[in-house]
Design goal:
Shape: elongated
Number of strands: 13
Strand content: 15-25%
Radius of gyration: 28 Å
Helix content: 25-40%
Order of helices and strands: HHHEEEEEEEEEEHHEEHEH
Strand order of the largest sheet: 3-2-1-5-8
Structural class: alpha+beta
Largest sheet: 5 strands, mixed
Amino acid sequence: MMLRLILAMNMTELTGAVSGPSTDVAAAVDNVTLFLHIVSGLMLALVTGLMLYFVVRYHRSRHPKAVEVKSNVWLEVTWTVIPTILVMAMFWYGYEGFRMLRDVPDDAMTVKVTARMWNWTFEYENGKSTQELYVPVDKPVKLLMRSVDVIHSFYVPAFRLKEDVVPGSESMAWFKANSVGQTDIFCAEYCGEAHAYMLSRVVVLDSDEFDQWMESELPTPDPEAAAALAIMDAHDCTGCHSLSGSHNPDAPSLKGIFRRETLVERDGKEVKFLADEEYLIRSIRDPGAELVKGYAPTMDAPEDMSDEDLGVVIEYLKRVE
């Protein structure tokens, strides 16, 4: 998985290869990169060529005695002015692209992004929440991003979009996908052991399909689930245990945990059984007593969780399918 992240980051930046949807910003970034590569290549060729010419032209066999070199004002002006023009052109070209990245259209659709170890959550204007980012094609999308734990970095290689998400502050980025399709989302800032598993997708739909998706899947208020999630967030349960079934090497997923066949290590022996309510209570109150096979004893018991709150969480876990 880490290899997949490294390849996606480096190959996209070096080759510009894109599969799936792209953006106008991606084209602008690619143009700036191409311009820098062309200028750098020409300068390399010029400097190397002059160096080789001078090595041959002024070799000791041709000039056994050193001669005084006189200054040439026009030569000095030329090698000062031309590089200055090139550097300013690079700056202007890059700055125009940066302005495009920060100039959000007034009609942009706002999506709130929450980063945590180790997943992304996307909340839409109507309250809908998903772990994959769904957007309409040809519609500007403004992302307001925050982190609840450590520094993350929201990175969509195909869009040439990367923005750090820092605890205690809100980051902003925007894009407008110009074709229907799907593309990967990565975290580009090392954020712990499961950093490489912090993956998601941007799913770009046509306008009608996106409207139908939004209207047909509006969230159903569930106060019990909201209460349980609030308790779990307060005790940092969801920082390690996923609710979506995604893999985390530090903690098993809670999706479908109730009545799931579980292999644990108890008193030095491996025991297999169905996870019932009693097991869930024991695993929270005394997490080191029965370790799920393959996981280290890294969980601390939430000592300040009341029996009432524990009951709310257990009832919720029974319904997480």
